[in-house]
């Protein structure tokens, strides 16, 4: 497979606070990579670096073999790569939903008529056309998330960087998003997704990367192997261990979408 990203020995700091430490990562064309980690381990920072918005303190990032600092300001990079922020309010600023979805195509040189056609196509595809004249600030959190997704898909990018894409979505909308991402994956899009939602990794990932509270990558592999490793998930704060009392017995098991209730240890109260 053709390499899209190569990340070598990357570290990043906010002042004196470490966000990422000695990260090595490869992302290949058409691959869906899910980055798992608890809040604050550096997942969002890594996506921003892959989008060329911030620069690492140490290490290098290459996009299709070129240093990202040399290509991230080019029109071709911005046409190919799109970032979904975890908080849609960071991304939505136009007067109406329709203006929002038109904005990026217009900025990248698509003619006004074609940009409007593209916006209408995407809004209809995502079932959002009825919101086209609404101001983004009047939408629910789930509607804002969907509009933010529409605004990046209007570019028809080949690489999607998605930060907590299920955040703010109700269960029905999460199913909607999963089906959308499955379709994008089937179309050969390259997807890098940061989340602590284990179900997304199980359903979508070709490969899973785990970052723990040391801000390092501590595991990498296929989703079945990673999600079956209860100790890894506990140590990375992706599930939690919880004791239950049954008469004079206690059992402890991990809580989370992929934890197994029947895998427990018994002990008598003393």
* Rg from alpha-carbon coordinates: 20 Å
H-E order: EEEHEEHHEHHHEHEHEEHHEEE
Number of helices: 10
Overall tally of domains = 2
Overall pLDDT level: 89
Q: Which residues form runs of ≥5 with pLDDT under 50?
A: 253-270
Question: How does this model look, in words?
Answer:
The structure is a single chain. The protein has 270 residues and is of the alpha/beta class. It folds into 2 domains: 3-238, P-loop containing nucleotide triphosphate hydrolases (Rossmann fold, 3-Layer(aba) Sandwich); 241-270, no CATH class. It is 33% helix and 30% strand. The chain has 10 helices and 13 strands. It has helices spanning 43-50, 68-71, 75-80, 97-107, 112-125, 141-153, 171-186, 198-204, 223-227, 230-235, and strands at 3-14, 17-28, 32-36, 58-63, 66-67, 81-84, 159-163, 190-195, 207-211, 217-221, 240-246, 249-255, 265-268. Strand 9 and strand 10 (217-221) form a beta hairpin. It starts with a strand and ends with a strand. The model is unreliable at 253-270 (pLDDT under 50).
Task: Offer a quick outline of the entry.
With 270 residues, the protein is of the alpha/beta class.
Q: How would the blueprint of this fold be written?
A:
Blueprint lengths: L2 E12 L2 E12 L3 E5 L6 H8 L7 E6 L2 E2 H4 L3 H6 E4 L12 H11 L4 H14 L15 H13 L5 E5 L7 H16 L3 E6 L2 H7 L2 E5 L5 E5 L1 H5 L2 H6 L4 E7 L2 E7 L9 E4 L2
Parallel strand pairs: 3-8, 3-9, 6-7, 7-8
Antiparallel strand pairs: 1-2, 1-4, 4-5, 9-10, 11-12, 12-13
Helix pairs in contact: 4-5, 4-6
